Amino acid sequence: MKFASLAAVVALAFTTSACVIIDADDHPDTSVNITKTDLEPIHGATIDKGDLVIRVSSNGCTNAADFAVESNRRDGSATFAFTRKRPDLCRALMAEGVDLRFPLDAYGVDRGSKVRVRNPLVRP
After folding, report:
1. Average pLDDT per 10 consecutive residues for the chain, totaling 124 residues
2. What is d(CA 25, CA 8) in angstroms, rounded to the nearest whole number?
3. By the 8 A CB rule, do 120 and 39 touch?
């Protein structure tokens, strides 16, 4: 008998926990802009010896080839975005993450150019 009561409570919780109400009218609120991003969260970025160096989370097998790199150059500055192509399925969690190097000249970026990284920054 107790199992049936517990099952009913759990079923009720599942049916109400995912409830979303959207109030759509003729005048949508344009002050809210929600976008989904597939950009890899990074722990930091720096320029070192002509390379853009980003620090990312790793389970022990992450390398630069695991990332798709989008770069755009305009008016003496460059913008980069990094998307992980392959998950790191290793099991050696590296709490500090790993540094990955991307040579700026390979992306046509001159030394001294302003570099911006669009990925979200996460703090340890």
Report:
1. 47 36 40 61 94 95 96 92 94 90 95 92 82
2. 36
3. yes
